[in-house]
Write a structure and sequence with these properties.
Oligomer: single chain
Radius of gyration: 15 Å
Largest sheet: 3 strands, antiparallel
Helix content: 10-25%
Strand content: 25-35%
Distance between the termini: 24 Å
Shape: globular
Length: 132
């Protein structure tokens, strides 16, 4: 589950142009009544649905078919020192993936447990910093 901290927080528009994905976004806005809640949406070549991912949300997806392609539009440049991530299987997030996870990058495997980073995440995602 990827995101960028403010002031480089990204908005995204995600589409699946071939195949199918289950896309999940998680609200990381500490002041939000939906903090840490998530939504799951199937995007596929048949429904041609796009998912808008607001700033200060984590985003990840699982390919549901072989040969799947996705397309992203992002509202901010990639900023390596502002990037963060959450484990796809963190029990505090309660994300449900439809298929067993068969491939995950070493970078994503190295994400720490949410309970270990929550203080930093809340501080860096706070509205006061996001508006700076």
């Amino acid at each position: 589950m990827h995101f960028q901290f403010p002031p480089a927080a990204e908005s995204k528009l995600v589409r699946c142009t071939r195949g199918a994905i289950l896309d999940i976004i998680v609200d990381l806005r500490p002041e939000s009544p939906t903090y840490l809640e998530h939504i799951s949406v199937e995007l596929n070549e048949d429904n041609m649905t796009a998912l808008y991912v607001p700033e200060r949300f984590a985003h990840g997806y699982q390919a549901l078919r072989d040969g799947t392609d996705t397309s992203y539009q992002v509202g901010e440049f990639y900023t390596p020192n502002a990037e963060g991530g959450l484990r796809y299987d963190d029990p505090q997030l309660g994300l449900q993936w439809p298929l067993p996870v068969s491939a995950i990058s070493p970078k994503d495997q190295a994400f720490r447990a949410f309970r270990e980073i929550e203080g930093e995440l809340r501080r860096r995602m706070s509205l006061s910093l996001a508006d700076a």
